[in-house]
Amino acid sequence: MTSDVNMTSTYSAHTLPQQHQPWYTYSPQNTLELLQTNPETGLSAEAVSQRQQHYGLNEIEETAGRSNWQILLDQFTNVMLIMLIVVAIISGILDIVQLQQGSSKGGVPFKDTIAIFSIVFLNGLLGYLQETRAEKALAALKRLSSPQVQVIRDGQRQEVEAPSLVPGDIILVEAGDQLCADGQILEAANLQIREAALTGEAHAVTKEYHAEGLPEDTTLGDRLNMVFTGTEIIQGRAKVIVTNTAMTTELGKIAEMLQSVENEDTPLQQRMTHLGNILVSGSLIMVGLVIGAGVLKAGWGMLQQLVEISLSMAVAVVPEGLPAVITVTLALGTQRMVKRNALIRKLPAVETLGSVNVICSDKTGTLTQNKMVIQAVETLQGNFHITGNGYEPSGSFFHTDHQTVNLNNYQELHTLLMAGVLCNDAHLSFQEGDWKIMGDPTEGALLVLAGKADLKQSDLESQFPRVREFPFSSERKRMSTICQGNSWPEWIPSQNAPYLMFTKGSPELILQRCHSYQLKDQVYPLTPEDRAKMVEANNGMAKQALRVLGFAYRPLSAIPDAGTDETSEQDLIWLGLVGMMDAPRPEVKAAVIKCREAGIRPVVITGDHQLTAQAIAEKLGISEQGDRVLTGQMLERMSQDELEQQVEHISVYARVSPEHKLRIVRALQKQNKFVAMTGDGVNDAPALKQADIGIAMGITGTDVSKEASDMVLLDDNFATIVAATEEGRVVYTNIRHFIKYILGSNIGEVITIAAAPILGLPGVPLTPLQILWMNLVTDGLPALALAVEPADPNIMRRPPFSPKESIFARGLGLYIVRIGLIFAIVSISLMMWSFDEAQTSGTPDSWKTMVFTTLCIAQMGHAIAARSTTQLAIEMNPLSNPYLWGAVVVTTILQLMLIYVPFLRNFFDTEILTQQQLIICLLFSSIMFVWVELEKIILRLYRKLKG
């Protein structure tokens, strides 16, 4: 562009005209005038300084988050931990009172207080370590926007730091540069920019100077007169006027959206909060009833004993080991997921995956290979389909009737493949165990196609060297290379010419310049019917969302002069069409079928073209032909309420911006959908963070998308999401297993403790320390073993459970209460018998040890029976979970050590049990196992009679 703008570059912030519409809608002339700058001299140093004061540094800004101290303090706002803290303080006060009175509860003062505070601290530390996983998404965004840049200031070309750029700066960019501000193009030469990270488009976008602005509703991917922060120049060069910096850039808007997305608790965290509220409320009610009943029955003289009983009840009702068991269970789940190529960044996401019922997937690199692959070739002799995956140069050629093609019978196809190699600037190479393209992916696809016919780039280029070229430009929409050959292959009717010019580009423009076509090894005049046939073939490929190139060639007797492209690129010989696309991943179609079987709906959300998105979705079974596709322009005209009404019926969204992705995810969540969002680009980050589960690509994903996600796919394989979802369901099922196991015994403990004063028994049957032992060790070890129970084979053939369901849903609450009552009945029965027996045996406190031991051993039988709600223990393979049997044996031995090892006996205030007393404890304990197994038999008979 040649500019006649001649204006001062001085600037005062208050005199700068206001921008009333998007910059891409202005002509470059208007943009220069509004920003008061000169394309040849740029801004003056004074103007830059003033603008920096007005606009600030060109950096992504971060909002202040919680400090580490605040995160740590927040851990102790959990209602169960607060109750334990109160219990520990009251227990310590009672110890002080007893020490002042000259009596003591045991050998070591304050041991209950110390033990409880230790548990509180450990649980708080676990939560703190989980939450202090730093959010680095904004830091990754900063890295995208902070390179060095060439700028014109005071008429001089300078290199400056990106943060110093201001609107109105004139910057110079070329191939290899990373853009660090948004701007409008003033001059461009063969400019191609990779914008996949920002827009989701697979191929490089050709940018160009526009003398006039673009329509206001132009989507981000179609703003060809603009360049954006964080994108990379693949080819060419340009002069650009900076229009937006820092948070006003497209990248800055993404950062702003990231900061506006609030983190919500996962379903598991919500369920645990609900569980804690119920347990604490129930505990306080029972404490009030026990103290009230005790005072009414025995007067205020029993208050201290009643308080001790209440403390034991409070400790008993809180499953102190549950947070640790859940954390370990989730950690084990993450390890299993890593083996299946899914890396979990945020621990609660393991369980959350099991609730997903919608997967919003980006197209590029997620459903597709992010590799341009040629699907079809069309010549006047026939249509050819090509097999193969990715950039690997191996595959076969087939006719539309699936018959294998013998390339020796299609000489014009050989010529077309040769033209694709020699009219090409890309390179195909085998690196680090994989085939990779250096250069434009479109040109790379042509090299792969030729490789499938055993035509090697290195051989052809050395045999037929390039002597001149007419490069591609957005105005010409074509490229030509002139190659020299002493002996052309027999399939090319070269007319003995020493040079051949190969041309590729827009099919319509190439066809206009052709007067003949090659068929086998002969050249024939191109008739109107032939032209119509090729135009129809081109339109058919375009409807299939293929990117189409036309190919032709021309024998030359001499090398044409530079700048003679218009006259040289005439009288061409037509070869045919090549149609290519970013092909679907081979394994995704099967993964989509599994998703539907599991009650999960896949949705495509992409910045790519509508036809491309629709074609990919139909091939994968995500949508059907005729289904409605919603574009970014349509979304712009819709209110959020209108979008919420339609999201359940739309499976494909195309040409969308980051704001649109965020709106779609929020609309789905408003419809009570539990959303997983996959993506790899910067543009996906806000939606990844907003989604219930954000899933980033590990190989092609940007740092920004990974840091904003909950999970990273190490193999970029959509099918891995299905495997991870299965693991999430297994984890949640096992969490329910050990919650019913732990809480059943806790209810039994509470009722047993509460029954003691009501029955008139002296003292507390279980001390807080003994209860902590049960909740952490005799409950904890078997609970961990239940956490690795194998998956139900039908776990992925049912819809996901509602993320809003209570942890007590589907009969679990009734089971816990029922089992708790059985525990209590067994324990109270033993307590009454053992108390009477203890009075005559000379060991008045042995009844407490018998109650303690019975509750612990009964849990072992419960753990064995709790593996399944339908199968009897004898019917299950004992080797399928050897950890459970190991936990039962180890825990039983540890419990016996508390009775028979002197140091432990003194510390835990237990008594030595006789052989007879121990056998009685074991007999009473076995009732628990028998009861649970009988329930299964009764349930089985009921279902048999009913069905």
From TrEMBL:
Domain Cation-transporting P-type ATPase N-terminal: 22-96
InterPro entries tied to this protein: ATPase_P-typ_cation-transptr_C, ATPase_P-typ_cation-transptr_N, ATPase_P-typ_cyto_dom_N, ATPase_P-typ_P_site, ATPase_P-typ_TM_dom_sf, ATPase_P-typ_transduc_dom_A_sf, ATPase_P-type_domA, HAD-like_sf
Keyword annotations: ATP-binding, Magnesium, Membrane, Metal-binding, Nucleotide-binding, Translocase, Transmembrane, Transmembrane helix
Subcellular location, record wording: Membrane
GO terms for MF: ATP binding; ATP hydrolysis activity; metal ion binding; P-type calcium transporter activity
Residues in coiled coil: none
A Pfam family per the record: Cation_ATPase
Family of the protein in this entry: Belongs to the cation transport ATPase (P-type) (TC 3.A.3) family. Type IIA subfamily.
Protein name per the record: ATPase, P-type (Transporting), HAD superfamily, subfamily IC
Species assigned in the record: Rippkaea orientalis (strain PCC 8801 / RF-1) (Cyanothece sp. (strain PCC 8801))
Organism lineage string: Bacteria, Bacillati, Cyanobacteriota, Cyanophyceae, Oscillatoriophycideae
